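Researcher: Go.
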Amino acid sequence: MIKVSDLTKKYGDFTAVDSISFEIKKGEIFGFLGPNGAGKTTTIKMLTGLLKPTSGDISIDGINILESDRNFEKVKSVMGYIPDTPNVYDKLTGMEFLKFIASIFKVDWKEAEPLALNYLERFNIIKSAGNMIETYSHGMRQKLVFTSALIHNPAILIVDEPMIGLDPKNVRVVKDIFREISQKGGTIFLSTHTLSVAEELCSRVAIIFHGRIKALDTVENLKKKVIFDTANNQSDSNDVNFSGKTLEEIFLMLTDEENENNEPASENEK
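Model: Structure:
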């Protein structure tokens, strides 16, 4: 559903994303992990059309979105995007905002309304749907954005830090929704700092550091072993046994500045 090939984004002499490649299958929850400044949000902005890459290709649902604006318009109808900051219109009510988003996706409100009401109910903000958004807390805004991203029933969901501002009960609701989407064949690209959530939900994860993918595999495989190439990129390598370690511990080891020159092999290189 998502294929990224040699994707690069440069700002002058600075390389924010450095020739990354990965594929995400239909029905997969794919975790995209990395510390602040690693290149996660830049990658997401390229996937969602908010930034044009310096080089590389992005195909979504079999369509190369960089070939033409028309191609990206086709993809927009099957994609939902939840940013890390809930951008909403304060002078609309929650329901007016949802109707507006439905119109952007060219979805008849009669079709979108049952889905919207379902998510508003599950997030426990249905009673506030008629209130002005300027009265909403950060968490309420985040739940409204979640709902707006799902009302056109997207086949692909791209999510940047979904748990910010949510209490434990609503974190559970989000995780349940993600599982349901995956079970129905929906594909989720999930960028998060909440490593326990990634470990619980994701079938595979990529760990990005300084714009490059340091590891890409299933969580279970990462827990077993990651192969570090030598600093000189020679054929010999050092095996690091991660048996018994949590994803958080593995993440911290891979993004340690002292190990910056050691490159673990991705699953495509194994």
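Model: The domain at 1-78+158-163+192-270 is CATH 3.40.50.300 (Rossmann fold).
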